[in-house]
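Chain X:
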Amino acid sequence: MLRFIVEDVTHSVFDMGSVESGGAPLLNDYKRDFFWKRFPQTLLGGPKLKLGYAVPCYVYIHQVLVFLLPFAFGGVFTLLAEYEILAPLNCCYVYGSIMTLFVLAAQITSWQVRKCSSNVSKFQGNLLAEDDEVDFVSCCGAETIDFVFTQKKYGVNMIIHAVLSGPHCALLFLYLLPSSLKHIFGSTGVTGLLYTVGWFTVCVSQYSLTVSAPPEPATFKPLDTWEITPLMRPFYSFMCAIIGILSK
């Protein structure tokens, strides 16, 4: 529905502008395609769910699984904490440790694959292509791993982002426990809404630490030498978790 509304508005506005000025429309087919490729990346924090060329379905499946992984682990530990099988703090520590190890293992694997394989990022010979077209061979191939887990610029950032992933996910896990949310807001409906939106926020913000930052600040990426951009969304969600926990 949102896509149809945006397309209708952009068609009407920019077509009207082209008629009045007698020039080319401001939003042509190329720009619309570019928008619908970048919009999911910006909304979801980085997953490339629409590419400008044909790719196997496992490329998208891998990205969705990486995106939902914080919620998958968090949902399991939420059940353990809510049914009092494990203490919430114990679940918090174990969950944070798992996320730290996962991010570190993913980045080390991507770095090792790129270092050892000569077939990573094989591109098509079309010089007029909008993006570099990766030639995917298999679902667990070197080029697939390198595409899904984009390597950090510096090795130290692999460690920093992995270490930050633990506290980031752990504190948000504590804040998003249904019992905690119900204690703060006193409503089952609000608790369910905040739980859903909250874990979507966790997945979005964590993706930039696990993989890379979303592409909306692409103009300033040459200036982002130390990869500060991937830390921005986790920082905002982390501050919300701190305020929520302190308000209990």
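Chain Y:
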Amino acid sequence: MALPEAQQKAFDQFYSSARNNTVLDEKTTVMIHLASAMAVACHPCMQYYLSQVDKVGITEEEVGVIQAIVMAVSAGRVMMQGGDAKSCGE
């Protein structure tokens, strides 16, 4: 399914401004993109950003740390949701 042309153009401009920002260095930007792709389970995005790690100097160890951080945040979310759900029933 494709976006209408105007929305695709707006998305492309937004994505480009986030990806090619002038605040963060390229390595940090790719690391954040990769972590975000992992967090939202976007398989094509993960594949793309994993293909970029060598180009920007991200090591396998750094990828592992990124994965561990995403896993920890996800586990914390589940833990907090469980507590919230329990307290709603009391």
